[in-house]
Specification:
It is built from ten helices and twelve strands. It is of the alpha+beta class and 436 residues long. The chain has a four-stranded mixed beta sheet with strand order 10-9-8-11. A three-stranded antiparallel beta sheet has the order 1-4-12, with helices on one face.
Length: 436
Amino acid sequence: MPTLDLALPLHAHDTPHDTLLQALLQTRARSVALVQGLSDADCTVQSMPEASPAKWHLAHTTWFFEEFILTPHLPGYRVFDPAFRYLFNSYYDTVGPRHPRPQRGLLTRPTLEQILAYRAQVDAALQRLSPGTAPTALLDLGLHHEQQHQELLLTDLLHLFAQNPLHPAYCAMPGAAPAPMPAAQNPEPLRWVSFPCGLTAIGHAGEGFAFDNEGPRHRVWLDDYALAHRAVSNAEWLDFIADDGYATPTLWLADGWRWVQEQNIRAPAYWQAHDDGFHTQAMTLHGLQPLLPQAPVSHISFYEADAYARWAGARLPTEFEWEAAARRQPAPAATPSQFADHPWRLPLPAEDAHENGLQDLWGGVWEWTASAYLPYPGFRPAPGAVGEYNGKFMSGQMVLRGGSCATPPGHIRATYRNFFYPHQRWQFTGLRLARG
């Protein structure tokens, strides 16, 4: 995939508005870079109701700025196409009716070219905003909303290409692929990193951006616990399969066992088995690739993660245990062009442990926790349509922490709460064991 030089100069006289606007335009440019080399057909097809076409992601993020920032705050702004308000609204009931989500793949028109023209108009209009004409918090929210959709765009494309028997690659390998270990050789054994009991502050502390579901900051009591120093690997998951993990009902929650049986689940999503049933390959954004035993297992549901933890004699961590441990390890900083130039689009083997003993908390796989996605004490949705952003989904889903290989680096922090339904696994989702 081609890459763009997205670094824009910052000057000493730049105001906070100028700095935020430059960061926003850089982020917007990265979204366009993600679809370079893709056809209109690649960007139009919807592979399942839970996924969205790349073209829709590009348009929806643009609609967000037009609807919530430009139309109310930029005098004289004229919408690109009034029909887009219906086509590209996602779930904002207070805005009005919208095109059904499962039918987004039927939108052969507008074309990709028209969507890119729509983005260009909105980007030009954003540059006409003067300091104070639009709420800074809304601009910042729009930037991070766009980053969320960059990750979804990639994972939705992976699901789409995985349905194609040609196994097309979204992007070429950036060089020699990591050599898989011999099948009989496992990664280094798990080590346990202990954390003491105590009253712990959880949630965003007020510095920098955070979504509303990351607060209010509050205190939680944690008993002594330990986390595995790395995520569970593919090799360990192969052991789970070989020990009939998917065929042992006592390992599974009732809903999970029903899901396994009804969907005939026998391995993580995208794994490919030979006629003998042994898995040696997996579909990735780089096409069909050898399964790396030492890399973290990915594309598993909460049900699978919970069953594996029980099989391993451990459990999943709570989101509070995960956050308390993660605060001891700084999240990676992002450079202006880091995401666009990031070469790898699949989880890689763990790197050296941080000083707290934990490996790859950030940017490998999203790690399932045992915590239901619920509001923190004192949570209140924001007034108006943006109050629908997170709060209305706090039911029936589970929290994941950490970020994945598809997450923009600047989008990762210890307090970030991702959430999905227990059966969903098209994202880069894995697990880290806990005990205690």
